[in-house]
Structure prediction request, 426 residues.
Amino acid sequence: MAAHQQRLYITAAFFTGVVATIGVGRFYPSIVKLFQPPLKEIGSLPDTGFYEDASAEALSDKEKQDVSKENILQGIEGCIGNTPLFKIKSLSEATGCEILVKAEFLNGAGGSPKDRVALNIIKTAEEQGYLTPHSGDVIYEGTVGSTGISLAMLCRARGYLAHICMPDDQSVEKSDLLEKLGAEVGRVRPAPIISRDHFVNLARSLAAERTADPAISGRGFFADQFENEANWRAHYEGTGPEIYRQTGGRLDAFVAGAGTGGTIAGVSLFLKSRLPQLKVVLADPQGSGLYNRVKFGVLFDPKEKEGTRRRHQVDTIVEGIGINRTTANFEAGRLHIDDAVRANDAQAMAMARWLVEKDGIFAGSSSCVNCVAAVKVAQAMGPGHRIVTILCDSGTRHLSKFWAKVGTTGGREDITLEDVMEAKHS
Prediction:
């Protein structure tokens, strides 16, 4: 009898639990609502209906179209180009002009405009039969850093090895990065361009020696960024059209520095063909001869002729732009360059601090020269104009040299644009 009653209790408890569960499940939402604050008070999401019907049929026609279009890039090469164009708010507000910068530091291989150049040089050489992937071919180049980094990454991506010759006074983080990318790096003392020991001439010689040696598999190819027209064509076919499209064809001036000259030549050739009234201005660091080339048609005084002096080729802390000789790439667009402005080292360093303090932009040395020059052009043209320049690379490439001189930033609210523009070279 006791066992029978125990079974009845168990059975009754089971059914009571089932009924309670069903009841709670049915009435629980209502109970919760009694104690839950309104959704708007806790930042509710908008009612899009998405979670009610997440099937493909619930998508709009436009959403269906968007979903059907894949956007998958092919390798690291696909991440090069189509960089954003954005306004530097502080400089625009201070000048009354719209100062826009092309964020070339966001190119996806080496993080500079040289990604475009390196890729076009390699692709052109492949098309012309000078390079064959995975054949043992080695690409040689003389560079102060950025082109070498772009080449090193793209060589790995496309089946080549890279051998980079560079001056030993460039920031050490560049050569360290090149080695981490698997490139062979030769750091050499700065020398005049007529010397066989100049880093560009050394790269050319090494490429020729490799090709001529029958005991070595694979050819040597000299990229020749200073004279190779694939350089300026990369910007004529890429950077220039992007700027034109991103600005809606509305800009008054384009400002850029020049090392090889490919960027300013290629961009100016494209933009001037669409905007004949556009003003193109060279941004030149102290010690460079290109300012005189544009302003007066000569590079320097005869007593400073290249090859007669033994000092560093350009007396500046700025890397990547400034040169005391002309190049085929620069000459390709020289007649489209309307004016030139100079920026000294002190102005470049002051601009570096300004960009961090005011805009949170950590820029490299050549980018700071470009921004100084853009401000000078804005001040000369007057309020209401739109000026485009280039942010070439990040300050992380310039820590041991340029940024070591700039020093620590932070907390300077009292800095003015006049302080930047009136900074004097000590």
In short: Residues 2-35 form the longest helix (34 residues). The two ends are 109 Å apart (CA to CA).
